[in-house]
Amino acid sequence: MPTDFTLNGEPTRIDVDPSMPLLWVLRDVLNLTGTKFGCGIGQCGSCTVHINGAAVRSCVLPAAGIAGADVTTIEGLNAAGMGFVQDAWIAEEVPQCGYCQVGQIMTAAALLKSKPSPTEEDIEASMGNLCRCGTYNRIRAAVHRCAAPLPDPQKNGDAKTDGDPP
Amino acid sequence: MSAVSRRHFLKVSSSLGAGLVLGACSLFSGRTVFTPQQATGDELTEDADMLGWIFIGTDGGIRVTIPSAEMGQGVYTNLALLVAEEMDADFSQVSPEPAPVDPQFRNPRILHRQITGGSTSTPAFWTPMREVGATARAMLLATAAIRWNTAASRLSAKESRVHHPDGRTFSFGELAADAALLDPPSTPPLKARADFRLIGTSQARLDTPDKVRGTARFGVDVRLPGMVYASVRHAHAFKGTIASVEGTSKALAMPGVIAIEVFDTWLAVVAEGWWQANQAVKSLRILQDTSRVRFQNTEQQRTALIRALDQEGKSVPRGMMHTLDVEYEVPFLEHGTMSPMNCTAHVTKEGCEIWAPTQAQTDSRRIAAKALGLPRHKVHINTTYLGGGFGRRSNTDFVKQAALLSQRVGRPVQLIWSREETTQHGFYRPAAISRFQIGIDESGDASQWRAQIAVPNVLISQIPEIPDAVWSITGDFVALEGFKHPPYAVGKRSIEGISTRLDTPTGFWRAVGHSYNGFFVESIADEIAHASGQDPAAYRRKCYANHPRHAGVLESLRDLAQWDRPREQGHHLGLAVHESFGSVCGQVVELSVAEDKTVTLHKIWCVINCGIVVNPDSIEAQMQGGIVYGLSAATRAQNTLVDGGIAESNFHDYPAMRLNEIPPMEVRCIDSEDHPGGVGEVSVPPIAAAVGNAIFEATGERVRKLPFSEAGYTQWRSTRG
Q1: What is the mean pLDDT of residues B650-657?
Q2: What band does B468 get if pLDDT is binned at 50, 70 and 90?
């Protein structure tokens, strides 16, 4: 049975096994490869997308569950007015391997939409995605940067404390 | 790249026997390393014109070929930076391109294979990449000199332009086509350090924009016309084989399923989508032949290690002021790359095209060619971005599988392992047990140092063609790295490594032997200091009298962490310094421990001496990342053997640190005149010991077995400020 939903602002219809997780609908059916597969059990957050504005782990969300929903993926984040989050990620030089970062950015964008000036506690409560490269302190700094934009810090060879609130 | 004609094709010899190409091709603009459109069937034709170190476009774009795989360590940026420095190029015009498999791109520091590992990329290519840049610069200057009818020595270059003293300029793009017709100089001079403009300054990573937009192409993002997907399962037990499979006809009838392919130790379902393939493969029941399985559980493996140590024997020094007689232990560890194992292959009549997130291009090609029965030159390896490497992707098991599956089904196949298969069928950081019998004299020196370690051979999994007899002579230097030459053994020493077969496959894991030997030796150093009533930092300072780089790191660390400053009530410090991969790294951890053993990490300070600093921000990122990686391992990670296979399966039972647990860190690079050392792995070895030493300060409990969770330290948190 076809399922209708909105994907990055576009009306979209899919006709797949209703139990197929949204992650694989996006990646294999709709060919949007920005959203990543990490664990398949909702543990790591690499597959995070927005469903009606909320961060959701798409690897455990069946296709049947998105009927009528507004789905935003990394491919549509900029058009949704949240490109500043990606800019902050660039400014803080967050990614290393980069595989989890799309999920991190989508999680941060959802947080910032509900709480434009998140506290440390808000960030710790919301930013629970895994990053095996260990970019956590730069993720924290990038979220803070979104809340209160600062000029580019002068990065030089000497000591610099990362991850502290600006 | 067809615009690069052979007429414009130059090859020169550098120290690598490198081919330098200056071609009149129009490059894609911007910094996109990969675009999805590039992965088309027409790349199946071998194009020798692709071989070269630099392509300069008439539009000024400079494409630098990077022999190492980008797995997060920043190598695309840092090696391109070396070329741009000597070339006097505008770095914003430079884009990195992964190298195809070719002898000229071999890593001179690792068995002359094209391989990324051992933190060797910058040390290995420090001189060759700069020579490539200097050669290109000399040819561009010579071309401008001809046009202006002057001597090249009067000209200078800056920001991708050649300057005449009278103010005239040419862009590199304007000169590229003619430059390609010149004979390259044999020994172009390299810059003096004082003339560096890029090296030593923080430069933004070239791969960041694609990675935050979701357009960076990882292995799983390759899309080919007609491509199908595969999910794999292995016989659960190591050394187990597949005896029979139940449920195949039902699985074949599942939607989208194309084929079930069964091999000796693994099988795969191929389907129109990966989820369908995985659903079908999960539905199968595998009956194993376990007749070759020797180890059923972790306890049997521990017994084998202890028996090996008992056979070696030990003797506690006599007549000493203090003695230590202690045993340390670490578990097997899987890498936990964020991206599960994967590879895409397309086997045709002409050969095989492979898209692989691999650290080992030469081995990938050899393994695939052998499996397919093809000559090696018929197999082409395209290196994608790696969703984490940490050493796991120096193995080629997944490459071989993808190639075989594509051959069987006659279509392009993208193989993706589930997280469960990735966790349970890795090449693990070995488990190890070590024993120390230390005699400390009146002056507080460890003048008697006896140590034994029983550990599986790491290299044997990587180079299986070398017989055991050879290993028994050479020993496994990787498993013992960091154990053999402790700076604290100032008198008589007797240090033994016993290679012990446990059948769990072992492999390179970020810092490999150093990851546990750093924990052992730096914990023992702390034990010696405490046993003899010395401050751990003061004790180390004394031992570093003949180790100037250690001493420099220690003094810088004392200053950075303000080691001697009184701490808040309940806060305690732990220190560790370890040399690995040509660099020395030291860390101080400040933590507190609650009654219920909840550990709060307050701050971590890190100092590294890695020789000449190439890209400071990149080093800082690697220090931060390695510390988090090492913390995950030390605090909670272990792979246990049950029924001959790994019990843990996913991130719920093989967990890693999350953002809320990581404290602020402060990193300092000591700049020096030494040849660049490794960076990617060197912050892993000290962290477990630094934490353990701080826990001892806080509680008086010396934890000698990792992970710390086994000793009841199961809750970890951080504080800000």
Answers
A1: 98
A2: confident
Residue B17 — very low, low, confident or very high, per pLDDT cuts 50/70/90?
A: very low
Q: What band does A148 get if pLDDT is binned at 50, 70 and 90?
A: low
Terminal-residue alpha carbon distance, chain A: 51
A4/A71 Cα distance (integer angstroms): 11
Residue B82 forms contact with A (CB below 8 Å): no
Using a CB-CB distance cutoff of 8 angstroms, which residues of chain B are in contact with residue A99?
A: 218, 337-339, 387-388
Using CB atoms, pick whichever of A33, A95, A165 lies closest to residue B212. Answer: A95
How do residues B303-357 score in pLDDT, each as one tens digit?
999 999 999 999 999 999 999 999 999 999 999 999 999 999 999 999 999 999 9
Please say whether the beta carbons of B210 and B384 come within 8 A.
no
Using a CB-CB cut-off of 8 Å, the residues of chain B touching A124 are 659-660
Residue of A nearest to B619 (CA): A157
Closest by Cβ to B659, choosing from A101, A136, A162:
A136
User: With 80 as the cut, is the pLDDT of residue B36 above it?
Assistant: no
The candidate with the shortest Cα–Cα distance to B395, out of B475, B509, B499, B564, is B509
Task: Look up residue B610 and give its two tokens.
Answer: 């890695």
Does B386 contact chain A (CB < 8 Å)?
yes
Does B216 reach chain A within 8 Å, measured CB to CB? yes
Residues in chain B within 8 Å Cβ distance of A162:
620, 624, 664-667
Q: Which residues of chain A neighbour B72 with C-beta distances below 8 Å?
A: 95-98, 133
Q: Which of B389, B621, B665 sits opposite A93 (nearest CB)?
A: B621
Residue reference for tokens 């300070």 = B605
The number of C-alpha atoms within 13 Å of B101 and in the hemisphere containing its C-beta is: 26
H/E stretch holding B669 reads: strand B665-670
The 10s digit of each residue's pLDDT in B525-558 is 999 999 999 999 999 999 999 999 999 999 999 9
- What 3-state DSSP class applies to B538? helix
**pLDDT at residue number A162:** 52
Least confident range from B186-200, B420-434, B451-465: namely B451-465
CB contact under 8 A, A136 and B336: no
**Contact predicate B415/B464, CB 8 Å:** no
Q: Are A84 and A150 in contact (CB under 8 A)?
A: no
B477 at A interface, C-beta within 8 A: no
Question: In the structure, what pLDDT confidence band is assigned to residue B21 with cuts at 50, 70 and 90?
Answer: low
Give the distance from CA B39 to its chain's centroid.
26
Query: What is the C-alpha to C-alpha distance for residues B650 and B642, in angstroms, rounded to an integer?
Result: 15
pLDDT of B360: 96
As a whole number of angstroms, the distance between CA B355 and CA B348 comes to 14
C-alpha span between A41 and A54 (Å, rounded): 18
Interface test with B, best of A27, A28, A30 (most B CBs within 10 A): A28
pLDDT digits (tens, 9 = 90+) for B477-526: 899 999 999 999 999 999 999 999 999 999 999 999 999 999 999 999 99
With a CB cutoff of 8 Å and minimum separation 6, the contacts of B78 are: B121, B122, B614, B615, B618
Per CB-CB distance under 8 Å, the chain B contacts of A160 are 620, 666-667
Q: How far is B430 from chain A (nearest CA, A)?
A: 19
What is the C-alpha radius of gyration for chain B, rounded to an integer number of angstroms? 27
Interchain pair A156, B616: CB under 8 A? yes
* Partner residues linked to B325 by β-bridges: B437
| Amino acid symbol at A13 | R
**What is the ipTM, given to two decimal places?**
0.93
Phi then psi for residue A75, to 5 deg, are -65, -25
